[in-house]
Amino acid sequence: MRRLLATSLLAALSAAAFGQKSAADGIAEYRAMLADGNPAELFEAKGEDLWKKKRGPKNASLEQCDLGKGPGVVKGAWVEMPRYFADTGRVQDLESRLLTCMETLQGLSAKEIAATPFGKGEQASMEGLVAWISAESRGKKLNLPQAHAEERRMFEMGKRAFFFRGGPMDFSCASCHGEEGKRIRLQDLPNLTKNPGDGIGFAAWPAYRVSSGELWSMQRRLNDCYRQQRFPYPGYASDVTIALGVYMGVNAKGAESIAPAIKR
Amino acid sequence: MADPMRIRAQAAGDKTTVRVLMSHEMETGQRKDAAGKVIPAWFIQEVTANHNGKPVMTAQWGPSVAKNPFLQFVIKGAKAGDKVAIAWKDNKGDSRTDEATVS
User: Fold this and answer.
1) CB atoms < 10 A from the CB of B34, how many?
2) Which of A38, A51, A52, A262 is nearest to B6 (CA)?
3) Is the pLDDT of residue A15 over 50?
4) Cα gap A68→A51, rounded to integer Å
5) Which of A41, A125, A264 to mutate to test the interface with B (most CBs of B within 10 A)?
6) CB of A245 within 8 A of CB of A191?
């Protein structure tokens, strides 16, 4: 009798498990439904245009911009950034590199763009550019170089920034992203201290956010992480954000980039 | 002038699946800006689809449709090489037409 009860209970439980999806499954299903019509495509089209259009005081296009694979090479550039650039003597991520190009080639002020709020003015151009450039590396595996001493230094700096606790809630990036199986509300959080897998974490940004209808670049994503930790905002394209990019990017080595992805 | 739409039309048998991404703010008229003033409504009101110049679908939309809308529908009898044109008109009178070839 007891055995019978146990089996029927088990049957009832598994039926419930079938009927009710886990939150993660629900979110994955929702993303799959949206992926077909990812509005990031609209940003990609804009970005390609912006790359080729002559703009700025110097009336030049960005086609001579060197993203690390030689002037004008866009394909595969995204999965190898941030990296060291000899001409500026700095490790740069895509956005700080674009700032350099916009300044040197087009004559726009990098300082002014960095001070512009997200989504406004030239920052809106930035959204399109990162969407297109990252899309040109879609499906490729992350492979950030660590050959240069400066790149290894930035990795160490990024690691320190990642584990640095502070702010009114005594948070660090690692508080949420340093262990497996953590989540915020229903959202599973990737463990960014190692490779969280294909298309997760670093390999999923930039992404289109359905909730705000905007395309978020990596810099904007980091900015929001700091907001959630109640830290002061990091400067746009500042060294600490680049260092974090190096740390997360190197950790995610071998993961397939699906950027620009789609997020809730 | 609004940004172009992205239209994909793929034939499979006698059915052609058309997928359209439109670039539009789709303001509901219910939101307020930082100063507390209502942001005026601004949304697509009318969508039409033409297959080789012949209307095959019209839709009336309202403010509840999401920003940067995605629309998918099926046309019966369209073949590869046919033209599919999508047009929208918003409540401010702005409009946009884009065309794609069935593949």
Assistant:
1) 5
2) A38
3) no
4) 16
5) A41
6) no
Supply the mean pLDDT for chain A. 87
The confidence score (pLDDT) of residue B1 equals 55
Task: Determine whether the interchain pair B6/A213 forms a contact, defined as Cβ–Cβ distance below 8 Å.
Answer: no
How far does Cα A225 stand from its chain's mean position? 11
The pTM of the full predicted model, rounded to 2 decimals, is: 0.82
Q: CA geometry: angle at A187 spanning A186 and A189, to 5°?
A: 135
* pLDDT over threshold 70, residue A126: yes
Q: Does B99 touch chain A (CB under 8 A)?
A: no
Give me the residues of B, 10-39, that contact A with CB < 8 A: 19, 21, 23, 26
**Which residue type sits at A101?**
C
- Catalytic residue numbers of A, as ranges: 225
Give the closest of A36, A42, A45 to B68, CB-based: A42
Question: Does residue A36 sit at the B interface (CB-CB below 8 Å)?
Answer: yes
Nearest of A143, A145, A72, A113 to residue A219 by alpha carbon: A113
Instruction: Give the chain A residue whose CA is nearest to the CA of B71.
Output: A37
Q: How far apart are CA B74 and CA B81, in angstroms?
A: 16
Instruction: Read off the pLDDT band of A2 (50, 70, 90).
Output: low
For residues B66 and B25, what is the distance between their CA atoms, to the nearest angstrom? 8
How distant is the Cα of A216 from the closest Cα of chain B, in angstroms? Answer: 15
Of A9-23, A99-113, A148-162, B55-69, the poorest mean pLDDT is in: A9-23
ipTM above 0.90, yes or no: no
pLDDT band for position A10 (cuts 50, 70, 90) = very low
The predicted structure's pLDDT at residue A19? 55
Nearest partner of A227 among A171, A145, A161, judged by Cα:
A171
How many Cα atoms are found within 13 Å in the side-chain-facing hemisphere of B91? 14
pLDDT of residue B40: 93
Residue type, A122: E
B3 touches chain A (CB under 8 A): yes
Q: Do A41 and B21 touch (CB under 8 A)?
A: yes
Mean pLDDT of A185-190: 84
Name which of B21, B71, B98 to mutate to probe chain A: the one with the most chain A Cβ atoms within 10 A of its Cβ.
B21
- A124 and chain B: CB distance < 8 Å anywhere? no
